Amino acid sequence: MSIEVIKSKAAEILPELIAIRRRIHKNPELSFQEFNTQILIEDYLQNKLNLKTKRLANTGVVALIEGKNPSKKVVGLRADMDALPIVEVNDGRPYRSENEGVMHACGHDVHTTSLLGAATILSELKDEFEGTIKLVFQPGEERLPGGASLMIADGVLNDPKVDIMIGQHVFPMIYTGGVGFRSGLYMASTDEIYITVKGKGGHGAMPYLTIDPVLITSHMIVALQQVVSRIANPVTPSVLSFGKVIAMGATNVIPSEVKIEGTFRTLNEEWRAEAHRRIIEIAEGVVRGMGGEIEIDIRRGYPFLMNDPSVTEISNRAAKNFLGSENVHDLEIWMAAEDFAYYSQEVPSCFYRLGTRNDDKGTTFSVHHPSFDVDEQSLETGASLMAFLAIEHLKD
After folding, report:
1. Of 3.10.180.10, 3.30.70.360, 3.40.50.740, 3.40.50.2300, which CATH number belongs to 191-300?
2. Which of 58, 59, 186, 373 has CB 3.0 to 4.6 Å from 34, enough for a Cys bridge?
3. Using CA atoms, how far apart are residues 336 and 319, in angstroms rounded to an integer?
4. What is the pTM of this model?
5. Residue 239: what are its φ and ψ, rounded to 5°?
6. What b-and-e string marks burial along 20-54, b requiring 16 or more CB atoms within 10 Å of the CB?
7. In this structure, is the dihedral angle defined by the CA atoms of residues 377, 379, 385 and 387, taken in order, positive or negative?
8. Where exactly are the structural domains of the chain?
9. Model confidence over 324-375: pLDDT tens digits?
């Protein structure tokens, strides 16, 4: 199938894709609340592309594009839909969020729009390929338990059975027109840690009459750093970070308890389980040894993301053919997490990065930043490459 045909179709629909992306960006919805986004997707697929849609995981949407011999092979294309609880910077952009305190700061508006664009291209070309494309619009990537796990529980990988899953994610470190791939282990598992340290509060001038939970917590946080620095095998990537500490005392008040929240991430399931045990053991030992009490809850999150070597190699090779080798980059392991990992644990998968950076347009901020934005020209690459990869994998 001609690369130029796909590129031409993507260029033709780019203005429409920009309008869709801006509409979604102006109306962001938090995880598992994507009701209006769901309606927008269904309307586009049903009324523009004449596709039948199905709802999964409450706010998710699935549709099929069947080519010739539809049972030959099934390739799933995934996009997430949810936004983040972030106040978007007010810098005059006409598509700024109108839902104050909610923002598409992670590019899920781009992912959804790109998949709608890919669906448009693939629908027009369905008589030229064999197999089936399953379009997966998934809710709740930003929040445990992860929409991917709920979509899988609802049967998204069955009826028809998905053979390969492909997903993409914006990446402001790569310039527009480029993409990035990594074979094998790519992104970390993620677990949430919630700890309450209890002591005995009192006057800051009389600490000898208290059991100071602030001091105890300080020692505990320092002691827990040895989980990564001394207990973990140095060749196994691991991160243990605490980003929230609430004491609610005052300059002269020692509180009765301290609450902290953190995250543990790694790329090895055996070590993940062992690390949980050691975190609990060290935290309880320090707190009780200093006279305090502790409640600790480690909530198991997403697994690590594994890019299947064969699927990734085919995708990488196809991308170089489609975009030029100079626009396809190698990625390093990234300790962030993604619930696409659930798909990668079930079927051979490839999760790659879509470049959205443009220095002149100021689209240089990291995801989850209140000034995050994308070069909308990247929608053309996002839609066309995803369509091309799907077709290439149906050939294999």
Report:
1. 3.30.70.360
2. 59
3. 24
4. 0.94
5. -140, 130
6. bbbebbbbbbbbbbbeebbebbbebbeeebebebe
7. negative
8. 3-187+303-395, 191-300
9. 999 999 999 999 999 999 999 999 999 999 999 999 999 999 999 999 999 9
